[in-house]
Amino acid sequence: MKLHATTILTVRHNGSVAMAGDGQVTLGSAIMKADACKIRKLMNGSVICGFAGSTADAFALLERFEEKLRDYPANMPRAATELAKEWRMDRALRRLEALLAAVDEKHSLLISGTGDVINPTDGILGIGSGGNYAIAAARGLVKYSDLTAAQIAEEALQIASGIDIYSSGNIVVEELKCRA
After folding, report:
1. Among residues 6, 7, 10, 26, which one is catalytic?
2. In terms of Cα–Cα distance, which of 53, 47, 32 is closest to 98?
């Protein structure tokens, strides 16, 4: 059976950045858990990281990412690049099946095992099974509403959970103020 899990979305809008994640973990056609927390604050709350994919793999990557953040405390893009290089080059890490989304006051990044570190142009980033649905909903809400970043992230995940069978409406949202 294939394990499916979660949707993570970041929205950067009107002076803040929010990350929202649902808590669904599905094994085959059964929901195994509806309230898993896939978002973590790192570096005393200055970085928010979310993950999609294998939970054990994601926790291994989160630990390594936090180490890289300690090595490069004022430079999240550098920490992410160093993690992506290590992830791609190390034989054991290369087998890990997860994606990370990370935000701080200035950057929104997707980090993958293929060596990608992507900063979306519009500050909206989605990963996981419902990621593309959540991105589409968030872009529409940013353009046509006066909601905050956190409200947009939560509503976009609610919309995605109505489409994607591997996403739930059990949503956790974290938010940071952006530096101007």
Report:
1. 6
2. 53
- At residue 157, the 3 state secondary structure works out as helix
Question: Does residue 94 sit within a domain?
Answer: yes
pLDDT the model gives residue 129? 87
Domain count for the chain? 1
β-strands 39-42, 30-33 pairing: unpaired
Would you say residue 11 lies in a domain?
yes
Catalytic residue check, 81: no
Burial 42-75 (b: 16+ CB within 10 A, else e): beeeebbbbbbbbbebbebbbebbbebbeeeeee
What's the average pLDDT block by block, 10 residues per block, for the chain (180 residues)?
71 96 81 85 95 80 92 94 84 73 96 86 93 96 96 97 87 89
- CA–CA separation, 20 and 45 (whole Å): 15
The predicted pLDDT at position 80 comes to 95
Asked if residue 36 belongs to a domain, the reply is yes
pLDDT confidence of residue 148: 97
pLDDT, residue 92, reads 66
